[in-house]
Amino acid sequence: MKRAWPVACAASAVALWISPAFAGPVVASRCSAAEPTCERATLSLSKEVRGPADFDFDTGWLPANSPVQVRFVAALHDRTRVDLGGTLDATWPSAVTLSPKGVRGAGLLAIDDGVELALQARFDVQVAGVNYKWQGNMPGLPGVSLLAKNAVAFDPWAFAGDSNLPTVTATTPLQTLAWVNLTSSIIPIPGISGGFELDGSATFAASYDTLRIGFDELSQQSAAGVVDFLHPTTSELITRAPAFDTTLFVHGEVVRQVSLLLVPAFYFKILGSKFSLPIAQLPVDLPKGAPAPWDFEPLPVHVPLPEIDVARTDVDLGEIALGTAGAAVLPIANLGQDSLIADLESTSTLATFDVPHLDIASNVQAGSRVIVTPLQVGAIDLLVHVRSNDPLAPLVDVRVRGQAVEPGAASSPVNQDAGCGCQQAGLGAQGRGAWLALGVAAALVARRRANRPLKQRPASLSSR
Prior knowledge:
Layout: E1 14-17, E2 26-27, E3 29-32, E4 35-50, E5 55-58, E6 68-91, E7 96-102, E8 107-127, E9 130-137, E10 144-154, E11 167-171, E12 175-181, H1 183-186, E13 192-215, E14 234-236, E15 243-270, E16 273-278, E17 282-285, E18 292-295, E19 299-304, E20 308-310, E21 314-321, E22 326-334, E23 340-346, E24 351-353, E25 357-360, E26 364-372, E27 378-388, E28 395-405, E29 423-425, H2 429-446, E30 461-462
Parallel strand pairs: 2-19, 21-28, 27-30
Antiparallel strand pairs: 1-4, 3-4, 4-6, 5-6, 6-7, 6-8, 7-14, 8-9, 8-10, 11-13, 12-13, 13-15, 15-16, 15-17, 15-18, 15-19, 20-22, 22-26, 23-25, 23-27, 24-26, 26-29, 27-28
């Protein structure tokens, strides 16, 4: 039964998704030469969200080209980014199993947060032949720069329930936020000034976890299940086809928190040197935000498959004289989009093959001869097993029949098909028809029998 999960989104955020999926689906390929029943796709997902009030403002130095200029800078950053990297393995036989696996160190959690306010001035003037040059914050208006950013790498998928979930923190330097000059009130000493100041810093933190990975959630047909911390794989129901397509839906969540550190202190300035006497350090943890849905854009994946097509599943070799061998070509085609690996075998010792192992490329047809050498007079009835990496037809049985007769009694040629292990590219409707015609012609030749009855027929020889 198909289960459709709702795709949640953060209504208060503008999401920027950085992913190559817009160029088309990710195409899987063979996991390795030693794994003919495994296709692997490389996954790359990225999502960046900026808060609705996020902005950067800078007037620049005004007026332009003036010896005396001012500049106003304001910024409010609320930015979070999550990258995920991994693979999707599709394996068989039985049902196609989908296994999304994270690549170690391919995750990234990054934040860029804080506020900045600054009113600056500068001048470059000449008075009485002397140059005076200065740049800095306007006196009496302390600049506030509580901006911080940081990033940490982690191992996807960081499923909820894992004890090692990624968390990133970024802390601003301690700086003076406000001060009150108390020189005239408490320090009436010439050359000594002082007062009260408030220093502070901010720490921004974010954590991420993946809730689940769904497949084909928007499809109206049966969807695969979900992958989470307790269920690392799921199954995909497919129909016989040269490939199948699926779409990943990665659902996660992000939790944000801000902490402040306030440090009130008395300060003194003596002969140009400043001394501070901190009163206390006051950490203030602001309420932790509720988990915010973090749903990546759907990622389509195309998985090529091998698809076997055996044109003949019932072969009649006709009469075969003892001391000779009968042979017939078994045409095998690959209608799929990935290479077909096929092995021919029989439980009967009477049958051998000129090419027992076939590696057939996509849209290519090939053939292998089955050679039967009888040991005694009688009926021949055996099975040839064609085992392949086709997920829906891993085993195709071909029945091979014939009649072993005394030397000189055979009424039809022994080698009915030239046969070879060659391959022919460009498999289409005409190509499949040509192979089928070849098989039918061989079968018709094999069915010719001698009109005269045999004097004696021993019991049937049957091997399966």
